[in-house]
Amino acid sequence: MLFDGFQLTVMALISVVLLALAVFAFVDSALRREDAYRAASKQTKPFWLIVLGLTALVNVLQIPFFLLQIIGLIATIVYIVDVRPALKQVMGNSRPRGGGWGRRRGGSSSDGPYGPFNGR
Questions:
Q1: SS3 at position 87
Q2: How do beta strands 111-112 and 115-116 pair?
Q3: Confidence grade of residue 100 (pLDDT, cut at 50, 70, 90)
Q4: pTM of the model as a whole
Q5: pLDDT value of residue 22
Q6: Beta carbons of 84 and 52 less than 8 angstroms apart
Q7: pLDDT, mean over the chain
Q8: For position 80, what pLDDT does the model report?
Q9: Is 52 buried (19+), middle (13-18) or exposed (0-12) by CB count in 10 A?
Q10: Residue 112: how many CA atoms within 13 Å on its side-chain side?
Q11: Strand locations in the chain, DSSP E?
């Protein structure tokens, strides 16, 4: 009885993670430009929107056809690991313009976040 509850909780957690990954990949693919897909020599934007949208739908409806979930997981992983970095490279750095912690604005390598650091 205790094992059944634990198994149900673990499976629910896995389902939520799979759904979150699919939704993230779908939203990310929707926000990318169409020409970036062609420039990166990847499938078209409508292709990825359909595949990732169906993956999210299968995970939301929790269709008991396990093979569809596995295919969707593979498609999501391919998008996140292969297509997304290629699109980011083609489009340049996709961070918003303006300030940011990781952005260098010039100066020497000893500059800290509040100005020069001379070690004194």
A1: helix
A2: antiparallel
A3: very low
A4: 0.67
A5: 93
A6: no
A7: 80
A8: 93
A9: buried
A10: 6
A11: 111-112, 115-116
